[in-house]
């Protein structure tokens, strides 16, 4: 029983950054901006959070800084994609490169260490209650908010139309640019939270490339989740569970002393995504249709 | 003319942004540029390093550029080169066991090396072909290649830890290939890979522009429906292009295993596949552009390695920042083009 | 209540291209006014200027007594909204997967602290639907509705935003004849309610049926305004083109003995294309024309969707791929020249070679051959410069380029599949393309002509088959055709025979 409970807790913890980023991806992609920059925004958020938490000795400021870091790169993505009409994939790659290169350069200048920030002491990290972090709960709050926004608010209506038929929205006198900006910035905000969770909650400091592809995995979750908040979150939780089972299966041998290599389990989410998407094209598995205007500059 | 102007503006913009970034961390941009320049092109030794790093970038750049011509965004070169390397390393391990008696350069030895190249090509091509197949099933190649990159990376990691592990060392690497198959460097640090990559780059891009299959690739890339209606087998063209692109990227693995390290080292690619994307985008389909961009990024990579030693505050990671800023500058190109058109029109009107 | 809308001396140029030379237009309050002209006559530019979507270079825009031209910020769609002016675009401004309700209230949602009050929105819409008689299922996704209802969505959308002056851009372009009837009836109802309507179209029959007045544009300028009661289709057409048109006539011949080059049995549709004969296919769009073409042009993939029998030049061809088909002497003029006909960023020479690249081997990228230059000239592609990028050509010249590629190198005994070959091109190009199709048939080609223009079908075809719900069972042989009977068959299928008898 305790084994099951601890598995669930681990899964929740591991899925939290994915959930935030996937929900962020929802905001951005649903409004028509492709966002492979989730990874970079998350990484930048993690770095900013760790730096500020270290200097202010406050986890709160750390989280806020994480949000700021995510939104900073989101603004760059928005500037390139929305204002300048750039190819959104190239822009996303640029953001990801920047997030990969900037933290080590800055940390060298700040701490004379290449790639990481100093370890944070306990009071600089987000406090956990009974082993549960407020940021873990926060992901569910974010989900609840976005579900309501998606279906029952004016903003949600605008986001959906901006991604599906921007001309329709524009023809009604609503600025599509503004709506897309909101979507991209929200993505930055949520990815910033995801990053802050990684560096000052789950972890005790920033380390080089600490997101390790979680942003891309969140993108996969978003796609399997059919570009809806609930679907994306469920997929993120499933990916978290797969990751947790990796720890569970460590050292377990099957069929005559054969240990399942850790790498095989690591790739499960990716293989699952590809399999589901390939199956979905047949039309039966899921209705994974991207927003029609996704990736098309105004 | 327009190509030259927009490219020049892009470069100036990238340079300016980089200077600002360097200045912001408290170093003199000029100083950093001098170190970069000297370290990349300052001496023949250094230049041979630059060519060494430019080799994989030229290959991945060609791979991405080829796919772009067919309207495919291959951001999976990274995964494809991993798989190519695993195949080459496996072949290397096999031949080491099979042919322990071959010790000097011989016909068999050369054959083994060529098959190694073919294996790497085939591995990368398979990885590209998966993305090509999934595209037929309406999975966008950007998504599938991202996933395949991670799968490829895990595959390498698994290979160096398990079946191909080098028992003689603690570091993450595979067993060395047989003594007789270790191709020496061609000139100082430069490997045989550079001339090979050069030939491939020129051949591929020339073919795209001048031959019937290149015509098919371009037609498919620009208007799939029209190409299909006109009788061009677009599905096959896209699939083959993706496989070819993956194969070319896979040759990077051959380069690493047979021509350079003579074993596969975990993390041997510091993101060559992604740099290839930047190379291809900068080149915009031009052959000299591709070679120039690859040498530039090669030099950048070599130069930035010395930044650690020669400056107090800038690390080699600056090269990632510079790459990012070059991409940012590239992103401004559509807008620059628009502005140029407007200016041109005004000038015409004034005249 | 209502108000006039007026354009005076409007001039608008895009770069070197003058779209509007001098446009004058007066739409009287409470009437339906038609703005007619050929493609490229400047209709849509004038309409966009009226609505504020683009600024004019000079001239005056007036609504009622208010001049809106020199305002700051300049006259734009948002101001037009507030003025009570609504626009229905030719391409529907509707998001397919969203509900009718969400589409209708877009931009004018009723909200409470940012949250939607769908109940109130629904009540208002119900009221609007009852008062106008335009009913719609509010909870269905728009994409699940037939096109006719989607166009109704567009109308309701502008009415919901309290528009009293409606601008409609080619509203019937995608409607079936029956849907068009309903639509025109809707317009009459709206006029009764005191709305003012400007309808931009080139379908003169509809203008005669519904409008009160018509303004004719030609080459960017207003040439005339006529009261509908005082004019005729013939006069309007002449004003549009500026000259009298000669339409080719086919004399009825008995071709049934001629050799069938293609035989297709697709469900309830049986089709034979015979040498020297133009076979016309009439039908409301979406009744199986696409499937027919698909089966002929790309049998192997069509076979995955539906079983059929196909013989081309006397051989079973069911399993042929698109490429196999193109290996035979078959010309295809596809329905959508931008989507399927041309690679727009290729130049004329490259587009002439599309699909034939392999046979040319290394010669591919040499400059245009004398034969290719001659083709461009003889098919009247302007400019005839072989390196002109196709994107820059006008619609008519793009279509002529396709016709040159497809018909230019065709042997005599071949098959020609022409799908909407003259859709959206100017009258000069229509005349030219018709001539080429007739010429091909005269040389012994078996031509299949699919078109939504009944006039085109009747003037060219040796026989016309009417396709209805995938069934191709009503045939009409030879000129003169009974237009009414064809129309009935299009709407109600094979039962038409009994009606005729």
Low-confidence stretches of chain C: 247-255, 496-501
Helix share bin of chain C? 25-40%
Q: How many beta-strand segments of chain C? A: 22
Strand content of chain B: under 5%
| Total of helices of chain B | 14
The number of strands of chain B is: 0
Shape of chain B: globular
Q: State which percent range the strand residues of chain C make up.
A: 15-25%
Helix content of chain B: over 70%
**Alpha-carbon distance between the termini of chain C?**
52 Å
Numbering strands along the chain, what is their spatial order in the largest sheet of chain C?
6-9-10-3-11-12
Q: Describe the sheet with the most strands of chain C.
A: 6 strands, mixed
Helix-strand topology string of chain B: HHHHHHHHHHHHHH
* Cα shape of chain C: globular
Mean pLDDT of chain C: 85
Distance between the termini of chain B: 20 Å
- Quaternary structure type: heterotrimer
Largest β-sheet summary of chain B = none
Mean pLDDT of chain B: 91
Return Rg of chain C in Å. Answer: 25 Å
Q: How do the helices and strands line up, and which of them pair or pack?
A:
The complex is a heterotrimer of chains A (298), B (351) and C (501).
Chain A: H1 2-30, H2 38-56, H3 59-83, H4 88-111, H5 134-152, H6 154-164, H7 166-171, H8 176-202, H9 214-224, H10 229-248, E1 253-254, E2 258-259, H11 262-266, H12 268-280
Antiparallel strand pairs in A: 1-2
Chain B: H1 2-24, H2 29-41, H3 44-69, H4 77-98, H5 107-136, H6 141-161, H7 193-210, H8 212-222, H9 224-229, H10 234-260, H11 272-283, H12 287-310, H13 318-331, H14 333-350
Chain C: E1 5-14, E2 17-27, E3 32-36, H1 43-51, E4 58-63, E5 66-67, H2 77-83, E6 85-88, H3 100-105, E7 111-112, E8 115-116, H4 118-132, H5 147-160, E9 165-169, H6 177-192, E10 196-201, H7 204-210, E11 213-218, E12 221-227, H8 233-241, E13 260-266, E14 269-274, E15 278-282, H9 289-297, H10 299-305, E16 308-312, E17 315-316, H11 322-327, E18 330-333, H12 337-341, H13 348-353, H14 357-360, H15 370-378, H16 395-408, E19 415-419, H17 427-442, E20 446-450, H18 454-460, E21 463-468, E22 471-477, H19 483-492, H20 496-500
Fold and architecture overview:
The complex is a heterotrimer of chains A (298), B (351) and C (501). Chain A has 298 residues and is an all-alpha fold. Chain A has helices at 2-30, 38-56, 59-83, 88-111, 134-152, 154-164, 166-171, 176-202, 214-224, 229-248, 262-266, 268-280, and strands at 253-254, 258-259. Chain A has a two-stranded antiparallel ribbon. The N and C termini of chain A lie far apart (54 Å). By secondary structure, chain B is mainly α. Chain B is 75% helix and 0% strand. Chain B is built from 14 helices and no strands. Chain B is globular. The radius of gyration of chain C is 25 Å and the shape is globular. The chains are: A mainly alpha (298), B mainly alpha (351), C alpha/beta (501). Chains A and B meet through helix 4, helix 9, helix 11 and helix 12 of A and helix 6, helix 11, helix 13 and helix 14 of B.
């Amino acid at each position: 029983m305790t084994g099951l409970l601890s598995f669930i807790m681990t899964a929740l913890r591991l899925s939290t950054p994915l959930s935030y980023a996937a929900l962020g991806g929802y905001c951005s992609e649903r409004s028509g901006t492709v966002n492979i920059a989730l990874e970079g925004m998350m990484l930048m958020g993690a770095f900013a959070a760790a730096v500020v938490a270290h200097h202010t000795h406050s986890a709160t400021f750390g989280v806020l800084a994480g949000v700021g870091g995510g939104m900073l790169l989101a603004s760059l993505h928005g500037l390139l994609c929305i204002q300048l009409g750039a190819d959104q994939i190239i822009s996303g790659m640029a953001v990801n490169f920047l997030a990969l290169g900037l933290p080590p350069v800055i940390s060298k200048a700040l701490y004379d260490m290449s790639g990481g920030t100093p370890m944070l002491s306990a009071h600089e990290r987000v406090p956990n209650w009974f082993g549960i972090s407020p940021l873990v709960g926060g992901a569910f709050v974010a989900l609840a908010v976005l579900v309501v926004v998606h279906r029952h608010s004016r903003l949600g209506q605008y986001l959906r139309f901006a991604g599906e038929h921007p001309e329709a929205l524009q023809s009604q006198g609503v600025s599509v640019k503004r709506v897309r900006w909101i979507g991209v910035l929200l993505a930055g905000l949520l990815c910033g939270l995801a990053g802050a969770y990684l560096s000052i909650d789950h972890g005790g400091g920033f380390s080089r490339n600490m997101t390790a592809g979680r942003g891309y995995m969140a993108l996969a979750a978003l796609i399997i989740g059919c570009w809806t908040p609930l679907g994306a979150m469920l997929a993120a939780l499933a990916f978290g569970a797969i990751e947790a089972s990796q720890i569970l299966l460590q050292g377990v041998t099957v069929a005559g002393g054969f240990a399942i290599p850790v790498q095989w389990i690591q790739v499960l989410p990716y293989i699952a995504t590809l399999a589901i998407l390939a199956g979905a094209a047949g039309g039966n598995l899921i209705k994974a249709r991207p927003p029609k205007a996704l990736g098309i500059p105004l | 003319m327009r190509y030259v102007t927009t490219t020049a503006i892009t470069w100036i913009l990238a340079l300016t942004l980089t200077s600002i970034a360097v200045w912001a961390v408290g170093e003199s941009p000029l100083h950093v540029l001098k170190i970069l320049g000297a370290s990349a092109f300052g001496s023949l030794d250094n230049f041979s390093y630059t060519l060494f790093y430019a080799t994989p970038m030229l290959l991945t750049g060609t791979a991405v550029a080829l796919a772009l011509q067919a309207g495919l965004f291959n951001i999976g070169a990274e995964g494809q080169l991993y798989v190519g390397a695993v195949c080459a390393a496996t072949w290397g391990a096999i031949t080491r066991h099979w042919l322990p008696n071959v010790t000097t350069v011989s016909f068999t030895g050369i054959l083994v090396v060529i098959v190694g190249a073919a294996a790497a090509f085939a591995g990368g091509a398979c990885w590209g072909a998966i993305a090509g197949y999934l595209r037929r099933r309406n999975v966008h190649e950007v998504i599938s290649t991202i996933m395949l990159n991670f799968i490829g990376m895990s595959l390498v990691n698994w290979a160096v830890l398990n079946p191909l592990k080098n028992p003689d060392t603690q570091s993450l690497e595979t067993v060395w290939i047989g003594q007789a198959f270790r191709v020496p460097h061609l000139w100082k640090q430069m490997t045989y890979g550079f001339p090979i990559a050069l030939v491939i780059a020129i051949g591929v891009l020339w073919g795209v522009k001048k031959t019937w299959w290149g015509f098919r690739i371009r037609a498919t890339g620009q208007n799939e429906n029209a190409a299909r209606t006109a009788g061009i087998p677009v599905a096959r063209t896209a699939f083959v292009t993706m496989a070819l692109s993956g194969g070319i990227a896979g040759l990077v693995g051959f380069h690493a295993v047979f021509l350079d390290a003579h074993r596969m080292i975990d993390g041997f690619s510091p993101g060559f596949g992604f740099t290839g994307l930047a190379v291809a985008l900068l080149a915009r389909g031009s052959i000299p552009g591709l070679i120039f961009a690859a040498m530039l990024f090669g030099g950048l990579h070599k130069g930035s390695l010395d930044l650690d030693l020669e400056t107090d505050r800038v690390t080699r990671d600056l090269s990632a920042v510079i790459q990012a800023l070059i991409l940012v500058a590239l992103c401004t190109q559509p807008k620059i083009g628009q502005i140029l058109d407007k200016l041109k029109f005004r000038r015409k009107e004034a005249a | 209540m209502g108000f006039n809308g007026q354009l005076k001396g409007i001039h608008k140029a895009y770069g070197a291209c003058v779209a509007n030379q001098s446009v004058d237009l007066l739409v009287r309050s409470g009437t339906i006014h038609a703005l007619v002209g050929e493609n490229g006559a400047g209709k849509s530019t004038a309409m966009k200027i009226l609505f504020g979507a683009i600024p004019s270079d000079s001239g005056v825009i007036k609504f009622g007594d208010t001049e809106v031209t020199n305002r700051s910020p300049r006259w734009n769609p948002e101001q037009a909204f507030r003025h009570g002016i609504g626009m229905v675009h030719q391409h529907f401004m509707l998001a397919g997967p969203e509900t009718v309700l969400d589409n209708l209230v877009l931009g004018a949602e009723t909200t409470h602290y940012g949250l939607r009050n769908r109940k109130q929105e629904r009540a208002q819409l119900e009221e609007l639907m009852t008062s106008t008689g335009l009913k719609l299922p509010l909870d269905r996704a728009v994409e699940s509705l037939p096109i006719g209802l989607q166009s109704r969505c567009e109308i309701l959308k502008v009415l919901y935003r309290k528009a009293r002056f409606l601008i409609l851009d080619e509203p019937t372009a995608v409607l079936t004849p029956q849907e068009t009837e309903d639509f025109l009836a809707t317009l009459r109802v709206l006029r009764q309610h005191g709305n003012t309507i400007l309808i931009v179209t080139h379908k003169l029959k509809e203008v005669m049926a519904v409008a009160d007045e018509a303004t004719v544009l030609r080459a960017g300028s207003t040439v005339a305004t006529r009261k509908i009661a005082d004019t005729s289709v013939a006069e309007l057409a002449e004003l549009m083109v500026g000259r009298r048109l000669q339409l080719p006539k086919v004399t009825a011949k008995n071709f049934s003995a001629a050799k069938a080059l293609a035989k297709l049995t697709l469900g309830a549709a049986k089709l034979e294309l015979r040498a020297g004969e133009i076979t016309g296919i009439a039908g409301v769009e979406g009744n199986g024309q696409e499937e027919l073409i698909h089966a002929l042009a790309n049998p192997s993939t069509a076979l995955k969707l539906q079983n059929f029998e196909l013989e081309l030049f006397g051989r079973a061809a069911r399993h042929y791929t698109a490429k196999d088909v193109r290996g035979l002497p078959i010309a295809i003029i596809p329905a959508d020249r931008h989507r399927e006909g041309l690679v727009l960023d290729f130049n004329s020479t490259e587009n002439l070679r599309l699909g034939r690249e392999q046979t040319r081997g290394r010669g591919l990228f040499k400059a245009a051959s004398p034969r290719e230059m001659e083709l461009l000239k003889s098919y009247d592609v302007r400019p005839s410069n072989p390196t002109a990028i196709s994107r820059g050509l006008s619609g008519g010249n793009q279509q002529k380029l396709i016709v040159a590629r497809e018909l230019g190198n065709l042997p005599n005994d071949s098959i020609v599949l022409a799908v909407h070959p003259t859709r959206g091109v100017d009258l000069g190009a229509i005349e030219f393309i018709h001539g080429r199709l007739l010429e091909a048939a005269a040389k012994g080609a078996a031509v299949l002509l699919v078109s939504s223009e009944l006039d085109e079908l009747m003037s060219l075809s040796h026989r016309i088959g009417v396709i209805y719900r995938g069934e191709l069972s009503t045939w009409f042989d030879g000129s003169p055709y009974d237009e009414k009977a064809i129309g009935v068959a299009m709407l109600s299928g094979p039962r038409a025979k009994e009606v005729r008898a």
